[in-house]
Specification:
By secondary structure, the chain is α+β, with helices and mostly antiparallel strands. It folds into three domains: 1-21 and 33-58 and 72-81, no CATH class; 90-132 and 141-158, no CATH class; 164-480, Methylamine Dehydrogenase, Chain H (7 Propeller), CATH 2.130.10. It has ten helices and 30 strands. The strands form eight sheets. The chain has a four-stranded antiparallel beta sheet, with no helix packed on it. A four-stranded antiparallel beta sheet has the order 4-5-6-7, with no helix packed on it. The chain has a four-stranded antiparallel beta sheet with strand order 8-9-10-11, with no helix packed on it. The chain starts with a strand and ends with a helix.
């Protein structure tokens, strides 16, 4: 019998009753009450109704001796009766929260939702592919477990932390980059050197030779380290096989060919970014240059009308802030895909972007942080809609960094602000409520801050003091669990003491009543004895 989806309306009920004329009165009554039940859930309201055709009627007419099927088994169908392949396609259209809710409906949906490929898409859309290789054993974590673990760990930024202070620079620190894959921190500043630090221990590993210019930008991945500044060039290091810290920035190894420079800018380099095949650099010469990593040559130049302050590439587009405007360029054909203008007060000094390519954060000199959502297709152009505006600082925002769901900003007012994007927008980038103040402010600096970087459990920041501060939140969840355990123990002891006191009061209640009665009787008896004694003395007299 062929089936199709349809809503259970009044006309369908009448048609169904006509087709089920052979049913008994009690069965027909049960069937009508089941169809007219208003408490059916959303999924149960979608019924599988047989498609009436002549072949099926003829077959039923020829096979008149066949027993009549039970209407409760052949007519009341749920979504779980669909093929698993079709159910898997339906689950692809749900969000992470909806997928978790569906997994609580039944065992079948729980198994499908737990092993669904959508969890991998959710994970990669928020945090990218895992940095460490996935294990091949049978005990490896599923994408759902990895997603839930990372989501739970993101709450650690509201917990307790430890702070390390990295000292080594002799002048102000202009750029900080956190390479979580190798557990390294790279910094550069006015002292013209690039320093490498151990992220776990906070110890200095090595220092480069002087580049004879102020280092204003540093970026790295496991295959390349790039630094740029007022020298108008990009100084690059490639990894050395067998090196314990990937890059030999000090030049202590005898191997050659692991350092090179890219020249082409006519002004100071202010920002650098990397992807798998390209190097992006922005400069005060009002241009963004795109370099090919394989050939080490400039393949494209994007011209602007003002100084370039920040850039963030994602996929086939790159977002750039130049002056008081922000641009989104299509890398394939070099065209402007979107322009964000008249929404930024003053120069936009900082920019951050989500991995989903549709949300852009900008920080301006008025201390505000704005969130824009890109709309439109990737080919014909698009537009940017202002979604939220946070007044996070009292001075210019110098740097932004994003690690879902936390946006971190540092400013010239000496403070670091943490903003939870989930409080303002949902997973689709739609605004759910007014922009709230930053969920947390980190202090410790007494002067200007120039650069900030965030990882899965650490925040690094450098400024005019010449030191780098690292807030470590890796033990925040463990600390919170210990605090909750101690709080539970104290509560349990308090309840135990209260119970013992109540038992003691219950046992001593009867004895206290007897003692009080005895005291009353004793006092009353003494008075009666004295009274009787007085009467006898009078009688004798």
């Amino acid at each position: 019998m062929a089936f199709k989806f349809s809503e259970c309306g009044d006309s369908q009920v009448k048609k169904t009753l006509d087709e089920q004329a052979k049913m008994s009165s009690s069965e027909r009554q049960d069937f009508c009450s089941a169809l007219n039940n208003k408490s059916i859930s959303k999924f149960d309201s979608m019924k599988l109704v047989p498609r009436s055709n002549s072949s099926s009627k003829a077959q039923h007419a020829s096979n008149s001796d066949d027993p009549v099927e039970d209407p409760s088994s052949s007519w009341r169908r749920s979504i779980t009766d669909l093929p698993q392949a079709l159910l898997s396609e339906i689950l692809c259209h749900l969000s992470a929260k909806e997928l978790g809710v569906v997994s609580c409906v039944s065992t079948l949906l729980y198994n499908l939702a737990s092993d669904h490929r959508g969890w991998k898409e959710f994970y990669c859309k928020r945090w990218g592919l895992p940095t460490l290789p996935l294990p091949t054993t049978t005990k490896q974590k599923t994408w759902k477990e990895m997603f839930l673990e990372r989501e739970f760990r993101s709450n650690s930024y509201m917990g307790r932390f430890t702070m390390d202070v990295l000292r080594g620079h002799t002048e102000a620190v202009r750029s900080v980059f956190l390479l979580a894959e190798a557990k390294l921190i790279f910094t550069g500043g006015y002292d013209s050197v690039v320093r490498m630090w151990d992220m776990e221990d906070g110890l200095a590993i090595s220092c480069s030779r002087s580049l004879n210019c102020t280092i204003r930008a540093v970026s790295a991945d496991t295959q390349l380290l790039v630094a740029g500044g007022t020298g108008s060039f990009l100084h690059c290091w490639t990894p050395i096989q067998g090196h314990p810290h990937l890059f030999d920035i000090a030049g202590s190894f005898a191997a050659t060919g692991h350092e090179f420079r890219l020249r082409g800018h006519e002004g100071p380099v202010t920002c650098i970014a990397l992807d798998s095949v390209r190097i992006f650099s922005g400069s005060w010469d009002m241009s963004v240059r795109i370099w090919d990593r394989a050939s080490r040559r400039c393949s494209q130049v994007l011209r602007h009308g003002d100084w370039v302050w920040s850039l963030v590439p994602r996929g086939s587009t790159v977002a750039v802030t130049a002056g008081g405007e922000a641009y989104v360029w299509n890398i394939e054909d070099g065209s402007r895909w979107a322009v964000i203008s008249n929404s930024i007060s003053g120069d936009a000094c900082a920019m951050a972007r989500t991995l989903g390519e549709d949300l852009i954060f900008t920080g301006s000199v008025d201390g505000s942080v704005r969130l824009f959502k890109l709309t439109g297709d990737g080919g014909g152009g698009g537009d940017a809609i202002l979604v939220a505006n946070w007044v996070a600082h009292t001075a210019a925002v110098q740097s932004l960094s994003f690690e879902y769901p936390w946006l971190v900003s540092c400013s010239s007012d000496g403070r670091v602000a943490l903003i939870d994007v989930r409080k303002t927008v949902d997973s689709g980038g739609r605004r759910v409520e007014a922009a709230l103040p930053p969920q947390r402010m980190l202090h410790g600096f007494a002067c200007n801050l120039f650069s900030v970087a965030i990882g899965s459990d650490r925040i690094c920041c450098g400024g005019e003091e010449g030191v780098v501060r690292v807030w470590n939140f890796s033990d925040a969840i463990a600390m919170e669990e210990r605090v909750r355990a101690l709080r539970g123990i104290r509560l349990e002891n308090r309840m135990r003491r209260r119970k013992v006191q109540e038992e003691m009061l219950g046992r001593s209640g009867s004895s206290e009543q007897c003692s009080m009665a005895a005291k009353r009787n004793q006092i009353g008896g003494d008075r009666a004895w004295h009274r009787k004694r007085g009467v006898a003395a009078k009688t004798k007299a």
